[in-house]
User: Fold this.
Amino acid sequence: MSNNSDTKEFKIKAIEILEQGTKSVRQVSKELGVAENNLYNWRKQLHKKQEKAFPNQPQHDEKELELRRLKARVAELEEEREILKKAAAFFAKESLRSTR
Assistant:
């Protein structure tokens, strides 16, 4: 999932999303493609060290965060589409059986 190349900005933004309280840790984890444990650890580290948290991180911009979020959303939608296809096929088959 995640690795040490996640930027300081990415980690801080992830914590901000988490602390908005509108999404669960699991949802944020899935959307951003990082392990739930990483989110907990990042939040703990940020609250303990504040400005000194996540030293020596490469600098990237908001586009990386948005790209990761969108890729995760696309994967989620593709999975949902496959489930719906299977459900539609199942119900079509059941409908044919019940009309006979």
Remarks:
- DSSP finds four helices and no strands in the chain.
